[in-house]
Q: What sequence folds into this?
């Protein structure tokens, strides 16, 4: 159950990173370089929101790796227990 929660939290952190990443960008009008030239636009990024975006992306990656690895480990452990039946266990060696 813990690993499922980690994967869900990873998805939430990733969606938060998308929202903050989109909010961090804005468009600014740049004055012309010389007279008679048109003004242009430039993308401006808010540093605190960019830092929050990178932290959320990192957190999402860590939680996703931990959650998926835990789910794979749990599945392999369940499979190993199911495969190990009394017939498949070798008999104990008798001393001679």
A:
């Amino acid at each position: 159950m813990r690993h499922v929660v980690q994967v869900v939290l990873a998805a939430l952190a990733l969606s938060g990173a998308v929202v903050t990443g989109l909010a961090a960008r804005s468009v600014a009008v740049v004055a012309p370089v010389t007279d008679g030239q048109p003004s242009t636009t430039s993308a401006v990024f808010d540093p605190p929101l960019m830092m929050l975006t990178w932290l959320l992306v990192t957190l999402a990656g860590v939680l996703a790796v931990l959650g998926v690895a835990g789910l794979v480990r749990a599945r392999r452990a369940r499979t190993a227990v199911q495969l190990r039946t009394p017939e498949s266990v070798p008999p104990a060696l008798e001393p001679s």
About this structure: Residues 2-81 form one domain.
